[in-house]
Amino acid sequence: MKRIVASLVALSLATPLAAREVTVFAAASLRTALDEVIAAYERETADEVVVSYAGSSALARQIQQGAPADVFLSANVGWMDSLEDAGLLAEGTRTDLLGNALVLVSGTPGDPVILGPETDLVGLLDGGKLAMALVDAVPAGIYGKAALEHLTLWDSVAPQVAQTDNVRAALALVALGAAPFGIVYATDAQAEPRVYARASFPSDSHPPIIYPMAALDGQAQEALPFVSFLKTPEAKTLFESNGFRVLDD
Fold it and tell me: What span, in angstroms and rounded, lies between the C-alpha atoms of 106 and 77?
């Protein structure tokens, strides 16, 4: 794989500099950080990056149906695996880029919540809804449901879960006061000043939160400069300032 990437780098260096338009499909939770990274990339190149944010599941399905994406950044490995199994990734370009954490947020400040089997989450909701991304499709919802099941809280709170198409939509429900609590990524809570992180879920209560990225098959040469930029110290600084953990290759 390293030889393939090296060959692609050589090809890109041998190609005269010209403006590229790179189409990126990215998990909704990356919006704030990735917008900053894209702005930095566009300042340093002649390229234009067009990005579509949505739940990883929706984006992966669009790619499977032929959507013209050059790069995919997923919020979990499962949806990237599905594209790789279908032969849709450019060989040698997949890498695990970022890590994240899961938190319980509220729209009002309050005491920290201690999460455990004895937590009265239903009581905390006080008749309101718990905002979550789709629990059987969107990574944040999948992680959140797994964490609640691990803590034996899912069965009691499930009837009060309000599911949304992506994690930023769940965040918005809490920020706007439509739901008193929600489960989102730590980076989402950091990006939204109208919510308060009340608890962090134990890392062993859900699968590791990993954001893989890859160029799509047939687009590696066109996308490689942007893919490479995502691993530069400048991009790393921007991701970390937004609360992400940058993973080593």
Answer: 28
Residue 55's alpha-carbon distances to 142, 169, 232, in angstroms, are 12, 10, 25
Q: Would you say 124 and 181 are in contact if contact means Cβ atoms under 8 Å apart?
A: yes
Q: Crossing angle, helix 220-229 and helix 31-44, to 10 degrees?
A: 110
| Reported pTM | 0.87
Per-residue confidence in pLDDT tens, the chain, 249 aa: 444 444 444 444 344 456 789 999 999 999 999 999 999 999 999 899 999 999 999 999 999 999 999 999 999 999 999 999 999 999 999 999 999 999 999 999 999 999 999 999 999 999 999 999 999 999 999 999 999 999 999 999 999 999 999 999 999 999 999 999 999 999 999 999 999 999 999 999 999 999 999 999 987 788 999 999 999 999 999 999 999 999 975
Task: Please give the backbone phi and psi of residue 78, each rounded to the nearest 5 degrees, phi first.
Answer: -60, -45
In the three-class reduction of DSSP (H, G, I as helix; E, B as strand; rest coil), residue 150 is classed as helix
Distance CA 56, CA 160 (A): 24
**How far is it, in rounded angstroms, from Cα 67 to Cα 61?**
9
What residues are paired with 104 via a beta bridge?
183, 199
